Every structure is written in C-alpha cells, then in structure tokens.
Amino acid sequence: EMLFKELLKEAADGDEQALGTLYRIYQPLITKMSMLNDEFDEDLHQEQMICFWRCVKKFYKDFSDSCHETE
Predict the structure, then answer these.
(1) For the segment 26-39, what is each residue's pLDDT rounded down to a tens digit?
(2) What is the dihedral of CA 71, 16, 45, 43, to 10 degrees?
(3) CB 8, CB 60: distance < 8 Å
(4) How far apart are CA 59 and CA 13, in angstroms?
(5) Are 9 and 22 in contact (CB under 8 A)?
(6) Helix (H) or strand (E) holding 35
(7) How confident is the model at residue 59 (pLDDT cuts 50, 70, 90)?
(8) Average per-residue pLDDT in the chain?
C-alpha cells in the first residue's frame, strides 16, 4: 500500500492513477461540497474538481517544503 505522501507526490507529478486514488478518497467530500439547495450542481462540481487538483499540487509543495525544513 502506497503511503499518503508518496501518493500525493505521484498525483502532484501528474500520475493519473495516483490522482484517481486520491479522488476516490475525497470523492464523498467533493460530492457533498457540490450540493446546492440539496441538489447536485454540475458547475459547482466542476469548480470543486479544479480546486481539488490545485490543492493536491499546493499541498504537496507545502508538505514537501516543510519536510525539508526539519531535515
């Protein structure tokens, strides 16, 4: 089983399988955040997916930078 840090690095580097695995982990939250007036909103979901991708890249960079500070 791949460690979260490795999974995040692979996803941030563009590995579609790793990104898909992360998506499956966070899919319930993304779907929940895509609801508007108790209905699924496709446009909001699209925005959530863009945010998800940006967060994967940013979180890995921030996580990686903070790890190097402690080494």
Answers:
(1) 999 999 999 999 99
(2) 120
(3) yes
(4) 12
(5) no
(6) strand 35-36
(7) confident
(8) 86
